[in-house]
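During the no-cost extension, the postdoctoral fellow (Dr. R.K.) reprocessed legacy sequence entries with the updated structure-token encoder. One reprocessed record is reproduced below for audit purposes.
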Amino acid sequence: MNRPLRIGFVGAGANTREKHIPGFRALPGVELAAVVNRTRASSERVARESGISRVAEDWRALVEAPDIDAICIGTWPYLHAEVAVAALRAGKHVLTEARMAATVAEAEAMEAALTDARRTYPGIVAQVVPSPVTLSWDAVVRDLLAEGVLGRLHQVEIAHLHGAYADPGAPIAWRQRREWNGVNTLTLGIYYEAVQRWLGEDASVLKAEAGIVTPERVDAATGARVAVDVPDWVKVNGVFFGGAVLRAEFSGVETKSPRNEIALHGELRGIRLDLTAGKLWLQAAKHEERELEIAPEKHGAWRVEADFVESIRKGTPVRLTDFATGVRYMRFTEAAWRAWQKE
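Re-encoded structure tokens follow.
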């Protein structure tokens, strides 16, 4: 490694500016080489504020640039597949923002492009930014499951209810438009990925319900009223391959009783992770909940950029999150989308 690893950024949304750019900048031997955002002005602003060497006119030019080693995709999901496939064909390593893609078909195309690229570029690395909501707790929960503390798992409950979309007069968010967000609905895929990580298995969708509370909103960029075509709330019932039942509820229009938690119920005990309070609770049958005291060294942390660079330099397998896992959670997300449309 006699020269730096040169990163090009396609899209510079909030997570790219707040996480990826600082994360890469903190690593030795990594160069923030180029950026292209939605407009020339925003590209120049990001480059100036972040110390990025140059601005590209078009994402294709950046992907094809011979002096770029890796592409960090920070766009909305609608563009992830097109950029990732092109970058892999050009021999570039890829880190793409989550959700992996807009649809299952696009996610599968990304996985196929990676398989093809490895024939020509054996060391090529492709990674999806992992769901961050449980990173601090993943090792603890997996240990409890591995030790049999819960016994046989019976039920998984997920609830993420908030009021971000409760105001009908608020402008439309990109997450509320299918043309930009695809079949990704609220935080369904993000939380499902986290539980999938704990259990090491997938779930099938048995039933889903969803609704749009405010059918139209103003587009802040144009002033026009546009249709909201991604649900404001969704409920999903499913079953994991190991037999545990899944009950999940998500809402962006909940103002009375916001909740943000994941609970696992087993034959012996249950655990409840309160993500708002940052506390993990254990409860045995007929006993009160008690908070589990977790040693600081047991908590995980955000290591996305460091892991990506380590995989490139040392050949370390991608764990959080590889393309195969991304395809799996996209299949669940799209299955839920199709299920509520049938109701």
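Residues 7 and 124 are 14 Å apart (CA to CA). The chain has two domains: 5-131+303-321, 138-299. The remaining legacy entries will be reprocessed before the final report is submitted.
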